[in-house]
UniProtKB/TrEMBL annotation:
Residues 17-472 form the Aldehyde dehydrogenase domain. Pfam families: Aldedh (PF00171). Gene3D superfamilies: Aldehyde Dehydrogenase, Chain A, domain 1 (3.40.605.10), Aldehyde Dehydrogenase, Chain A, domain 2 (3.40.309.10). GO terms for molecular function: oxidoreductase activity, acting on the aldehyde or oxo group of donors, NAD or NADP as acceptor. InterPro entries: Ald_DH/histidinol_DH, Ald_DH_C, Ald_DH_CS_CYS, Ald_DH_CS_GLU, Ald_DH_N, Aldehyde_DH_dom. The keyword Oxidoreductase applies. Keywords: Oxidoreductase. It comes from the Bacteria. The active site is at 248. This is Aldehyde dehydrogenase. Belongs to the aldehyde dehydrogenase family.
């Protein structure tokens, strides 16, 4: 088996123990992973804290930080094939997507390289005649970045990039499920020339690793991507130290299809929204809200398109749909789909057993129009299951779209520009795609409302999340200060 170690203070090392990672396409172990527990977590945070205060990093100019990030971007691009191989082996994501996505990750590091020397303070037109006042943007300190298994090189880039650009140091925790691409990425951090301790990469389990990291007194900011229940634990853990948090959580995103939409384009977009990455995406368009007048026509078109999806080995470039990441995930999805069918949903396609030793579950569509509170409608499945609910008018579509505790993303499909604007304003979510879906860019902020979290990743807003504002007052008068008992 391949072996992967922790990266602490610029060195690769064995952990407190090891565990194995399974190949989701076969169900077989393929890699041995070093596990971090309390001692390793403490040493990683201490290394990040020392690096934050050391002159090698503290006194580095913002432009110099940008050049290091630019070098890192080049290395990611040069090593994209190997990183993609590891991500496909460990997560089951198809190789055609991991290669494309990791190549694009380099652009995120380039974007934040360019932002490093542009996080500017400002001079205030203060209401004191004898005073100059300005603000500075300064790094918050040590950042704990907690990354899920899916799209981990992308989801780490939107934390590592802006945090390093701002001048922070990090301890990055990869998920215990499929951590190998991120642990391999550590070599690129060292090769890029970052000082030891600036970026540490570890992995481990919740109680022994995650809790130790999120309760550590030297952690100033916790950046987390994952589910709401874990986020609640993190927020409770952060309370003792009042650590700042940014939380990018799950979603139950509506895909709203009006009667005047381009149905062929919408069908492809809906396939991308819920069946790309085998549905394992926080922005998955898992609720199709479709106008009653076109429901049957569109579903006939969609089912035919879905049944042509090529299911196979994620290593093959012809494969469009691979396995789920874990056996537990497959079991949970099977249970919730069966529950929805018992509640009265109608199976249109899918929900059968694929003859494979891996963790495969087929693209599945349920018509839940008669049961809009079915289990698959209200729960985030993080898998390839689409729940369909019809609506009669625009007001009902908006009501159904907002009838969730989540608020991450939405798709709106209509040729009516006025309607697109009205619906976009009415939706309670952080991202809206109009006549498209599942698009990202380093320039665009990303995040949600409600149980989908708070804070933003991407764009200048993400970089500012890792800074704090210092206000500086300079008195310009040579006259003695007046009455000391009156606030000026």
């Amino acid at each position: 088996m391949e072996s992967f170690k922790l990266f602490i203070n610029g060195q690769f090392e064995s952990g407190a123990a090891t565990f194995t990672s399974l190949n989701p396409a076969t169900g077989e172990p393929w890699a041995e992973i070093a596990e971090a527990r309390g001692d390793e977590v403490n040493r990683a945070v201490e290394a990040a804290s020392r690096a934050f205060n050391a002159p090698e990093w503290r006194d580095l100019t913002a432009s110099a930080r940008g050049r290091l990030l630019m070098r890192l971007a080049d290395l990611v691009e040069q090593n994209a094939d190997e990183l993609a191989r590891l991500e496909t082996l460990d997560t089951g994501k198809i190789i055609r997507e991991t290669r494309a996505q990791i190549a694009y990750v380099a652009d995120y590091y380039r974007y934040y390289a360019g932002l490093a020397d542009k996080m500017e303070g400002r001079v205030l037109s203060i209401d004191k005649a004898d005073t100059e006042t300005w603000t500075r943007r300064e790094p918050v300190g040590v950042v704990a970045a907690i990354i899920p298994w899916n799209s981990q090189l992308f989801l780490s880039a939107v934390k590592i990039g802006p945090a390093l650009a701002a001048g922070c140091t990090l301890v990055v925790k990869a998920a215990e499920s499929a951590p190998t691409p991120l642990l391999a990425f550590a070599r690129l951090i060292a090769e890029a020339g970052f000082p030891a301790g600036v970026c540490n990469l570890i992995t481990g389990f919740g109680e022994s690793c995650g809790t130790a990291l999120t309760t550590h007194p030297d952690v100033a900011h916790i950046a987390f991507t994952g589910g709401p229940e874990t986020a609640r634990h993190i927020v409770r853990n952060s309370a003792e130290n009042l650590s700042k948090t940014t939380l990018e959580l799950g979603g139950k995103s509506p895909f709203i299809l009006f009667e005047d939409a381009d149905l062929e384009s919408a069908a492809n977009a809906q396939v991308a929204a819920i069946f790309a990455a085998s549905g394992q995406s926080c922005v998955a368009g898992s609720r199709l809200l479709v106008a009653e007048s076109i429901k049957e026509r569109f579903l006939t078109m969609l089912v035919e398109r879905v049944q042509r999806i090529v299911i196979g080995s994620p290593q093959e470039m012809t494969t469009q749909f691979g396995p789920l990441c874990t056996r537990q995930q497959k079991t949970r999805i099977q249970t919730l789909v069966a529950q929805s069918l018992d509640q009265g949903a109608t199976l249109l396609t899918g929900h059968y057993e694929i003859d494979s030793p891996g963790f495969y579950y087929p693209p599945t569509i349920l018509d839940c129009s008669a049961t809009p509170q079915a289990a698959t409608v209200v729960n985030e499945l993080f898998g390839p299951v689409l729940s369909v609910v019809s609506f009669r008018n625009e007001a009902e579509a908006i009501r159904l779209a907002n009838a969730t505790a989540y608020g991450l993303a939405a798709g709106v499909f209509t040729q009516n520009l006025a309607r697109a604007h009205r619906v976009t304003r009415a939706l309670r979510c952080g991202v809206v795609w109009i006549n498209t879906y599942r698009m990202v860019s380093p320039l665009a902020p990303f995040g949600g409302y409600g149980l989908s979290g708070h804070g933003r990743e991407g764009g200048m807003e993400a970089a500012l999340e890792f800074t704090t504002t210092k206000t500086v007052w300079l008195r310009t008068s040579d006259e003695p200060i007046g009455d000391p008992f009156i606030m000026r």
